[in-house]
Amino acid sequence: MKILDRAKEKISSGARLNFEEILALYEENDLLYLAESARKIKESKSGKKIFYTINRHINLTNICKANCPLCAFQCRSGDNRAFTLELADIEKNLSLIPFPISLKEIHIVSSLHPEKNFSYYVDAVKLVKKILPNVGINAFTPVEIVNFAEISGKSFSEVLSELILAGVTSLAGGGAEILSERVREIICPKKCSAAEWLEVMKTAHKLGLKTNASMMYGHIETIEERVEHLIKLRDLQDETGGFMAMMLFPFHPENTELGKKFNLKRVGAWEDLKMLALSRLVLDNFNHFKAFWVMLTLPIAQLALNFGADDLDGTIGEEKIIHAAGAKSSTGITRQKLEKIISECGYQPVERDSFYNEL
User: Fold this and answer.
1) Sheet order of strands, 136-139 included
2) How far is CA 17 from CA 144, 172, 215, 231, in A?
3) Which residue spans within 62-173 are E strands per DSSP?
């Protein structure tokens, strides 16, 4: 039996795809077949429900010692774009949130500040928890956790335990980019390694901290490296079951050194939808897939609901990292618009908290 035929037979029977079969499906480029197959899996897990949450993003600082070529958000101290939120700034920003009683999640990610110590981040979490005691705090990526361990002299487990005590309820899934050391050496050489990213997630799961996962595609990685990335996530989920949702991010090259060096262009909607559907087929042990509209744009995110996605993330409020790289989407959206986008596709909008509890 040909590899492609075997792959399709496995999809029909619900069996797990292997490396060669995943590649064959990608190379066949049958977008409608992938969409139909991914949609069936999505609906077998969550029916006609599409989730969203009322959330806000907080970026504590953009001053970063990593200076990754892939990033347009980071800058050095003294740059006219540089900012760092002190506790008083965070408190002021939170006080300006309209209808805070409706808020379900605060999302906190930043950069690797060369001077701030670990206690700064712990205190920031404690402040958010004090002001919004009933709101989930989805905070920090494994990249940041590795940095916290380095600057504090603590283990990953000690860092995560302290953040949990401060109020962190789930870990952000960013910073994975592509889990290949070859790729990371070029696009983010001063960030944590692929092995460290996976180890932080494994440690978080052992401590009972749920997390998200991600992949950033469309830069210098090969298709084989994308597949290897997905299989590494699938293997860890088999072991721990700690991932709640998967997010796929197309690389936005505008204003980045990586984009200039390799003359990169943003991949198109076909690739976005193809990778989403294929990932849904590969990651058979993930329940939820986010169509992160900030990255994809709203029209593509809406289409993604028929390609395996069952979550539009949330209202966000203000997003800075992706917009620094040239994202053209708005920085926030209303609950009403999210529900309209979902309903137009024939799906049922369902508000959730950080853990996919329906509200």
Assistant:
1) 55-58, 105-108, 136-139, 170-171, 210-217, 243-250, 288-290, 311-314, 49-53, 348-351
2) 33, 27, 19, 10
3) 105-108, 136-139, 170-171
Check residue 317 and give its pLDDT: 64
CA distance 216 to 141: 14
Give the whole-angstrom CA distance, residue 63 versus residue 325.
Answer: 16
CA 247 remoteness from chain centre: 5
Shortest CA distance to 74 belongs to which of 326, 325, 252? 325
| Pairwise CA distance, residues 13 & 8, whole Å | 9
Q: What is the model's pTM?
A: 0.94
Cα gap 124→93, rounded to integer Å: 12
User: What's the DSSP call for residue 116?
Assistant: -
Residues facing 136 on adjacent strands? 105
- Write out pLDDT tens, residues 213-231: 999 999 999 999 999 999 9
